[in-house]
Design goal:
heterodimer, A: about 250 residues, alpha/beta, Rossmann fold, 6-stranded mixed sheet, 9 helices, 10 strands, about 35% helix, B: about 325 residues, Alpha-Beta Plaits, 2 domains, 11 helices, 14 strands, elongated
Chain lengths: ~250, ~325
């Protein structure tokens, strides 16, 4: 596992004018790892994530994502990753089946693969009775689970999740994490941001960004030890309170 | 409690409010016979996930939406008949930022002051604490503010006419842990000045910041009480369990017949057994049998999320 790093970043930096949004961040993420990417609003998480997804060219530094160079091979990177944000990208006016088929097509799966995936996902998510319902008629929690499943429909090397669980009830939030564990067991690396500090505990390792830099990176257990804290909430507050810049 | 007595002490009285929306051909029940009272000077929280009816409820109480049935009053005024009086008494901060993006911080504030026939100077005391934090940016357009600063400005605008009741719809949603903490500290200071506060949140952990909370799900109130009291109602023993391999532990618990529920909480699972006879020893020995290593089991008291999930499951039955 040690040699199978799917994300390697070295001194990755993004500067807008004279504002250093992301300031020389270096880290590695292993295959199948659940990696929590935390930070206060404005710490630089979104900018860093956009770079890693190949959507924003870094100002300096080096990085490979899924084995591809972040400066040269952004198109290959986009094919090797999945992405889901709180504002999910499902089409409200398409049915559940149609959404799965659409994304399968976009990610270049064959007709046969799309058919198999659609059947599998509908069953796996227990949506048999709703597969022909429009997505807009679904409860929020179901949409979230569907959006996640669609984001990994092509079995990407990495899936990026940007605050995936905002606003759902506590049961659904936990069911969502079971999907994350399941994906990680299948070897998909999960890169996730969240405002729920209990969710930070579910990650294998957690990094905390403050003012564009990674101030801490370790397992939740070690972070609590290092910062002499009982919970990740406490760790986060201790670090994030040091921030000098706003959003 | 004698009704007329409670009326004198209550700033908000909600009585059997229901509201349905038509969506395409079907009907969605947003509020299902919701009733509660908020005492004068109380900090009252409505805690529930998206879609539980929090915003509909607040829109009814702020006289922006008519309920299908039921009635409610604010400071003794009926929300339908006396809506004009109520609008003067209420401060409302909607969930979506709704100030004028093209006006500066100061212009927004004086706009809202003028609408309510007052001035910034007249009620400056009330907002001073909060306004001072954004005053350095008072010539900046509201649209150019950061999320945290927008939130503070919106709170100032909701307070500038010195309302007796403040209604805040999810003020901390999408805000990081540090700013959330600061926001609740601001609310505590406002409460100390005698303002009644009704606030909604999807973050269960924020329930503990309120004097009393109503837990809401699917348009219904599951429970109303002090946060500690709600947790005391959790009737079964609750076990915190962890072991070396957490995901397979979860799968084991899901398969084990003797388990009633198992939910992850940070580094532990919170487990409720069907029979109270199955305690610490039973769980440990079963897990040992299943070859788990580094097993840790201890009894804990329920927190608000445990309680919420237990109540949710009860209401589904």
């Amino acid at each position: 596992m040690i040699n199978q790093n799917v994300i390697i970043a070295e001194g990755l930096t993004k500067i807008f004018g004279n504002f250093v949004a992301v300031d020389h961040i270096s880290f590695e993420v292993a295959k199948g790892e659940i990696f929590g990417f935390l930070g206060a609003n404005g710490a630089g998480k979104t900018t860093a994530m956009r770079m890693l997804c190949g959507l924003s060219t870094p100002s300096s530094g080096k990085a490979t994502v899924a084995g591809f160079d972040l400066f040269k091979d952004t198109e290959q990177i986009k094919k090797s990753i999945g992405y889901m944000s709180q504002k999910f990208s499902l089409y409200e006016d398409l049915t559940i089946r149609e959404n799965i088929q659409f994304y399968g097509g976009i990610y270049g799966l064959s007709k046969k693969q799309i058919q198999e995936k659609t059947t599998y996902l509908v069953e796996h998510l227990h949506l048999q009775n709703y597969q022909n319902s429009l997505v807009k008629s679904l409860p929020l929690g179901w949409k979230q689970k569907l959006a996640f499943s669609v984001a990994i429909v092509h079995d990407p090397a990495i899936v990026f999740l940007d605050e995936p669980t905002g606003g759902v009830d506590p049961v659904t939030r936990r069911e969502f994490w079971e999907l994350i564990y399941d994906a990680s067991e299948r070897g998909i690396t999960v890169f996730v941001t969240t405002h729920y500090m209990d969710e930070a505990e579910y990650c294998n390792r957690v990094s905390i960004m403050v003012d564009g830099r990674i101030e801490a990176l370790d397992t939740p257990q070690n972070l609590k030890k290092t910062f002499n804290s009982l919970s990740m909430d406490e760790v986060f507050l201790k670090l994030a309170r040091k921030a000098v810049r706003g959003e | 409690m004698v009704k007329s007595n409670s009326n004198n002490m209550s700033a908000v009285i909600v009585n059997n409010i229901s509201k349905k929306y038509k969506v395409e051909k079907s009907q969605v029940t947003a509020l299902n016979t919701v009733s509660f009272e908020v005492l004068k000077g109380e900090l009252f929280g409505i805690v529930g996930p998206d879609g539980s009816g929090k915003t509909s409820l607040f829109r009814v109480l702020t006289t922006l939406l008519l309920a299908d049935s039921g009635n409610a009053s604010i400071e003794g005024y009926d929300i339908v008949k006396d809506y004009k009086i109520i609008r003067k008494k209420l401060g409302y901060m909607p969930g979506r930022f709704s100030l004028y993006h093209d006006l500066t911080v100061e212009e927004n504030l004086s706009f809202f002051a003028t609408i309510f026939n007052t001035s910034i100077a007249e009620n400056y005391d009330l907002i001073k604490d909060i306004y001072q934090q954004i005053e350095p940016f008072k010539h900046r357009r509201a649209g150019k503010l950061s999320g945290g600063m927008k939130q503070k400005l919106a709170l100032c605008c909701a307070l500038i006419h010195k309302p007796s009741v403040l209604i805040l719809d999810e003020p901390t949603t999408g805000v990081d842990a540090v700013s959330r903490k600061e926001f609740w500290e601001m609310l505590q200071r406002l409460k100390a000045q005698g303002i009644t506060i009704l606030v909604s949140t999807p973050y269960m952990d924020e329930a503990s910041m309120c004097d009393r909370v109503a837990l809401m799900q699917n348009g219904q109130i599951l429970a109303i009480d002090k946060p500690d009291q709600i947790n005391l109602q959790f009737s079964k023993p609750l076990w915190a369990v962890k072991a070396a391999s957490m995901y397979s532990l979860l799968k084991t618990f899901k398969k084990w017949q003797a388990v009633e529920s198992c939910y992850s909480f940070g580094e532990y699972y919170h487990v409720v057994m069907k029979s109270d006879l199955n305690g610490n020893d039973a769980i440990k020995s079963y897990l040992l049998q299943q070859q788990f290593l580094d097993i840790e089991v201890h009894q804990i008291t329920a927190n608000i999320e445990d309680s919420f999930m237990a109540l949710m499951n009860k209401s589904h039955d």
